Amino acid sequence: MNTTNEIQKPGLITAIALMTLVSGIINLFWGFVASATALGTIVGVICLPITILPTILGVFEIIYAAKLLSAQLQPVQPSTSLAVFQILTFLMGNIFSMIVGILNLVFFNDLAVREYFARVNGAVPQTPAPVPAPAAALPMMPQPASLPETPEAASIEESLPSEKAKRVRRTTKQG
After folding, report:
1. What is the dihedral of CA 25, 30, 36, 37, to 10 degrees?
2. What is the pLDDT of residue 4?
3. What is the number of structural domains in the chain?
4. Whole-angstrom Cα distance, residue 17 to residue 145?
5. What pLDDT, in 10s, does the model give residues 148-166?
6. Does residue 66 sit within a domain?
7. 82 lies in which domain range?
8. With helix as H, strand as E and coil as C, how does the chain read?
9. CB neighbours of 166 closer than 8 A, spacing ≥ 6?
10. Are 30 and 52 in contact (CB under 8 A)?
11. Residue 25 domain-assigned (yes or no)
């Protein structure tokens, strides 16, 4: 029986955590520098809320990385939204954080990483369902014979108007 203390961290989890931690530190400094620069102009003061966003992202990245690097395991989900925000930092000129976000999305799709998150969160990892054999390899099954018509079905069919009776031919006179 596996307990949470016995779960081994894959190398990709450590890579995700370290890259996210470094990206968080860079985003903190990036946000502080952008905010300090923005305070130097009147237009920058108006844009100050935009320059604070990398700082906020950096704080969330550091918290997420700390959860992943913690010696005591705790339930944590793969944070695809954090990775998407990391990718969006290219709008602020932060290419490093964008690359980290792309790599995190790729690593979250790895089988070992998915199984790790499933075990940490207490869910049983799903194994792929067995693929059924192709139809050509199956022996031919006899087709069921058509069932004899019951008298009720025949009387219902007779009571329905035929297709020919529904069609009415119109003739036009040319004068």
Report:
1. 170
2. 47
3. 1
4. 64
5. 556 565 555 555 555 555 5
6. yes
7. 11-120
8. CCCCCCCCCCHHHHHHHHHHHHHHHHHHHHHHHHHHHHCCCHHHHHCHHHHHHHHHHHHHHHHHHHHHHCCCCCCCCCCHHHHHHHHHHHHHCCHHHHHHHHHHHHHHCCHHHHHHHHHHCCCCCCCCCCCCCCHHHCCCCCCCCCCCCCHHHHHHHHHCCCHHHHCCCCCCCCC
9. none
10. no
11. yes
Band of residue 129 on the pLDDT scale cut at 50, 70, 90: low
Q: Residue 25 corresponds to which amino acid?
A: I
Q: Global pTM?
A: 0.64
Tokens of 127: 């194994």
Structure tokens at 37: 């620069």
**11 or 137: whose pLDDT is higher?**
11
User: Quick check: 57 pLDDT over 80?
Assistant: yes
Q: Which residue has the tokens 């207490």?
A: 122
CA distances from 41 to 36, 38, 45, 115 (A): 10, 6, 6, 50
The two tokens of residue 10 are 């894959």
Measured distance CA(89)–CA(29) in Å, rounded? 13
Angstrom distance (rounded) from CA 117 to CA 111: 10
pLDDT tens per residue across span 63-102: 999 999 988 888 888 999 999 999 998 988 889 999 999 9
Q: In this structure, is residue 81 part of a structural domain? A: yes
The first and second tokens of residue 95, run together, are 């290419």
